[in-house]
């Protein structure tokens, strides 16, 4: 296990009706709030009304930034920064999924940045001060509710880039699983694939002796497999939604990656698909993941796939290593398909045309991952296999 410093500063309020803490928590930071949300799901399921009632009863003044897009745009970030500067905002409250929370994070960092907000997406080292942000999560997927990262898209340049700063982690997040009952099936499936991918990105790794982190990762993967399917069948099943929601936070908040030297690879490949074709993040991951697994399977990595197959999928450990590994990858793919997720790029309208350009752009900051480092040609091979 490698050395690490533990710090997971976000306070979590988890469970039914936990919105009751909202006013008291907000007041720790001030009484001028920017409420950031997406395309209207929070109005349809009643969460918006609950929040605004609480604000009105508690003399909390609020401004709104509605309409944050899935794959949030830098243009929404710029709008938000303007509202914050014009109104002396003291806390940004994001209500929604990862897109809304990510947008709020970069607004918070951009507020103090003297220049165009895209600069701090391209180069996170330019961030030195951040307004407090908080979240009310409505979709279990990205883990943005408990991490310090954000991913923003520039449509003009077909770029989707990750940025981050320790102070971009939400000060508090309210996780009420009932708020995810209204998440449609396609987003439930994509969210489950996203959580699993966050776990894979650190599980498939060369650091030895991280036994504890590996067993925790397997527990989280099994939880996704079990409850992802359950939430698809019964969208209002509290136990399923609660387990997915907490897994989404634990998958990426640092617990699994502490003590490991984990460089991600499937995520940067997927971000190009979303940047060029605006597809749903979790869908892109579900398509690419089994092909990435097959591509990186070799004599150095096969034991890790055996560990995965035996511990997560319950495959018999006696037998040919490669057979177990291929079987584990097959089960992963079949699971995604069982959730109704597409399994090829063509199904989401992606053809050969831009694959080369995307592979180049994915590796512009260097090779991807360290389980098996990938160059542009490797990324292209994986894209082609996924066609
Ligand atoms: O916009 P609204 O109307 O709210 O509808 C959203 C949106 O259409 C809907 N939705 C959310 N909660 C709902 C609901 N519909 C009904 N009932 C509810 N309770 O779901 C749609 C997708 O929302 P979005 O926020 O885009 O989804 P997700 O949470 O999957 O976020 C995806 C974004 O996060 C980034 C992705 O790249 C992508 O841009 N990521 C952020 C990460 C991070 N900050 O750490 C890590 C991830 O790997 C990921 O890259
Ligand atoms: Zn993700």
From TrEMBL:
Instruction: Check the record and name the SUPFAM superfamilies matching this protein.
Output: Dehydroquinate synthase-like
**EC number(s) on record?**
1.1.1.-
PROSITE patterns given in the database record: ADH_IRON_1, ADH_IRON_2
Q: Which UniProt keywords apply?
A: Oxidoreductase
Q: Which organism is it from?
A: Anaerotignum neopropionicum
Protein name in the entry: NADH-dependent butanol dehydrogenase A
Boundaries of every Alcohol dehydrogenase iron-type/glycerol dehydrogenase GldA domain copy:
9-177
Task: Name the gene behind this protein.
Answer: bdhA
Span of the signal peptide: none
Can you cite an annotated GO cellular component?
A: cytosol
Name the enzyme group at the top EC level. oxidoreductase
Q: Where is the Fe-containing alcohol dehydrogenase-like C-terminal domain?
A: 188-387
Q: Which GO MF term does the entry hold, naming one? A: metal ion binding
